[in-house]
Amino acid sequence: MTRQIVSVVGGKDAAGTDTYESTNPARITEVVARVGLADAQAFADACRTAKEAQREWAKVPAPVRGRVIASIGRLVEANAEALAHLVTQEIGKPYAEALGEVREIVDTCDFFLGEGRRLYGQTVPSEMPDKKLFTFRNPVGVAAVITAGNFPVAVPSWYLVPALLCGNAVVWKPAEYAAASAHAMYQLFAAAGLPDGVLNIVFADGVQTFRGLELALEEGTVHKVGFTGSSEVGRKIGELTGRHLQAACLELGGKNPMVIMPDADLDLAVEGALFSGFGTAGQRCTSLGTVIVHESVHDEFVERFAQAVQNAEIGDPEQDVLAGPLLDQKFADRYEEYLTWIQPHHRVVSGNVGKIANESPRRDFTGDGGLYYHPVVVDGVKPTDQLFLEETFGPIVGVTTFETLDEAIELANLPGYGLSSSIYTTDARHAWKFREGISAGMVSVNNSTSGAEAHLPFGGNGKSGNGSRQSGIWVLDQFTRWQAMNWDHSGHLQKAQMDVVDIAPDMSFRL
């Protein structure tokens, strides 16, 4: 049954001014949800509503807010299968991966429920007598959170859970093509007892969202912006918030390298490259971009990797498959553009290229009328190639070679992204040298470029982000502001750096 979905602001449904149809990419004629889209003014109105609600929410003791987060975790856990099936239906993510994504919400709640009792400040010694110094974490106010749809519930939880725990109100704008999954997640959060207006969900297209965010920043009703999406849009968000003296939390794209050393366990490396490159059909910000393999093991690795890709199951995401369809038609269109980056000097080693269909099947699978594409491995990629330098959001992985680890690190850093990275080696010296030289915010040793645990800092540098981090205790700095307090009980004015007792040493002393 097709769902009818609209924004929810202040606990009330808000009718849209336009309609978007979210379809099942495995069967593109199946409409999962009809979504009412808001305009810029409605987004700005939601931010005003959130600002009013935030004042009272911030007064709720942090340990009590932590218990609300605990309730969210238990509600998600109790509804895990239903939510995962909805994610699979709406964006074509294999069910096993969708279930893991839902589990990540639970893990995030389990971590942050305790932070309600650990929003610690410090008692700091003063340089003067009868004076006490303190620090406190205060909520920022209203957070506007804009998320992509490739992880329609896990990634939003990285923003929503800590933001709410810290006493903020949130206006969340999810991707339209994942609206049903987002709306279901909103319902679970609301069922935990959040007061009306503390969490608001607004469905809108990119143009209206940007204009609405601009209005809200001008009005002073948004105090933090979180954005997950492309580097191109992230730059625009960063510029907009910068004009209002804010630093957005930006989690952007990646061109994630995997270095294969001559001493690597090649079976393990192939397994990691297969999941990194083609899990979620290569539509993760942490998906493998380029395998940088030592020349001495290049031929053997490529042969094994190509065979593994050819043997992998692509198909119905409700089944046990490596990958299902692409997320939405716009991603399929973009992916077909990436395929034009394959040049005559490249060698496709994985078989067919392009859409899986009757005229180009994958064994006996013909695509079932969905947005299914052949996974592609391109050997012979050069550092000057567009395929090497730019993010390719979809099931395509490049392969190049190196002679020395220094060269491999230079190649890994060359595209200018800095999200995730991986090295396969059995020599600890190689692992530590790679860690020191790589610009990525996340490093894996003998593991894939994809897969983050809920209590480690997640984020990137360069074209992958502005250095902000999500997850774990590190994200608290995104949703709180430090406040310093000094309390002088001496009974007279003591001036810092001026009225400090000086104990003079005898600098002429010698043994």
From TrEMBL:
Record keywords: NAD, Oxidoreductase
Quaternary structure annotation from Swiss-Prot or TrEMBL: Homotetramer.
Organism of origin: Nonomuraea guangzhouensis
Active site: E251
Record protein name field: Aldehyde dehydrogenase family protein
Pfam families linked to this entry: Aldedh (PF00171)
InterPro entries noted in UniProt: Ald_DH_CS_GLU (IPR029510), Aldehyde_DH_dom (IPR015590), ALDH7A1-like (IPR044638)
Every Aldehyde dehydrogenase domain range: 18-484
Coiled-coil boundaries: none
Family the entry assigns: Belongs to the aldehyde dehydrogenase family.
